[in-house]
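Write out a record, focusing on structure:
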Amino acid sequence: MSQASAAVPVVSVLTTAFNRANHVGAAIESVLASSFANLELIVVDDASADDTFDIARFHAAADDRVRVFKNDRNLGDYVNRNRAAALARGRYLKYLDSDDHLYPYALEYLVALMDAHPSAGYALSQKELLDRPHPLVLSPRAAYLINFFHANLFGRAPNSAFIRTEAFRQVGGFSGKRHVGDHELWLTLSRHYPLLTTPPALAWDRTHAGQEKSLNREMKQAMHLAIQRDALAHPDCPLTPEERRMALENVLHAYGIRVLKTAFRHGDLHSALTLQSHLQLPWHVLLKAPFRAPHRPPIPQSLV
């Protein structure tokens, strides 16, 4: 029995898995090698048909910080992420996909950072913003202004996040939407809580052919557009009505440029038309896209 497991853990690392026998063992070992020992690792097998569950149980037998569960039926990605979070005992949640690798310094750094900024509901790792070093504490308004007018702040995978458990549960966790649940949750959390930015390179994201993110590109883009529309129309959106209008124009402009690049730069008219159909972009948006610049209102210094 590890000493860290005797007390309530500070961090709950959440690993959801489906048919990941080739990778889940390495993911578990990367968590257990963390320099921050006061953790639990919750592995929830989503009714795998391979040896994923048995491999996770093997590690649980050797280190009781590992807790392993198996669903009776396949719940799907984001519903299973919610189930893992419901089992968590830590005050922070750290998702690590079952085919990825957590760097040993990541949790120690993230816990210290979040403890030092108690107002932040969650953290996202990414490149530098606004020509300033990390960390930045972004109010809801600042986060929305940056995301919709300056940089893609919320287009980050679950591995990029470190979430205060109370905040996650307060907003209800993931909605369950496939493909875009992470993007949607960051938009939701940032309506209610400040966001803390952190540097990248806290986890390694493995790329391979069996990942769901490699599927249904056009449909996923349409879903990302839909959740951004919904976020801008939400009553609690922290932007002014005029800023919401300009933000939506920016979003439509960006997708219009994407359609045109697919058609003309990459010479793939079929994919461009498919994308345009999924996005349901009006033709006047496409025709105007090359001739208008996106809105770039300044971000007041007081908001950052």
Summary: The first strand starts at residue 11 and ends at 17. The first helix runs from residue 24 to 32.
